[in-house]
Amino acid sequence: MPTKDVITSADLADLRRSALATADPLGIAADLADAVDHDRLASPEDAGDALSLAAEIAEVRNRLDAALRYADRAVAAFPSPTDPGAGFATALRARIMFKLGDRDDEALAAVTALRPLLTEQPDAPAYVSAALEAGGRTAVAEEWLSEAVDTLLGARTTADVGPAEAPGVAFFLLQQRHRVRRDLNLPHDRQDDLADRLEAQLTRGTESDEPDLLFFPKAEFDRLDTLTDTFGPDYDAHRARLEKALVRLAEGGGATLSVLRASVAGLTGYANRNDGDPSAPNIRRRYAEELDAQPGAHISWPPERNGACWCGSGLKYKKCCLPRSRS
Question: Best label site of 44, 187, 247, 270, fewest CB within 10 Å?
Answer without folding.
Answer: 187
